[in-house]
Amino acid sequence: MRVTAAAPAARRYLTYRVSCAPSFRTSSFTQSHPLLPLNSSSSSSQSKFQSCTTPIIVRLFNTSSPTMSSSSFFDAVKARRTYYQLSHESTIPDSKIIELVQDTVKHTPSSFNSQSARVVVLLGDEHTKLWEEIVKPAVKAVAPAEAWAASEQRLNGFKAGYGTVLFYEDPADVAKLQETFPLYADKFPQWSEHTSAMHQYILWTALEAEGLGANLQHYNPLIDQQIASTYNVDPKWSLKAQLVFGKPAGQPGEKTFKPIDERVAVHGAKN
Question: Looking at residue 263, what DSSP letter applies?
Answer without folding.
Answer: T
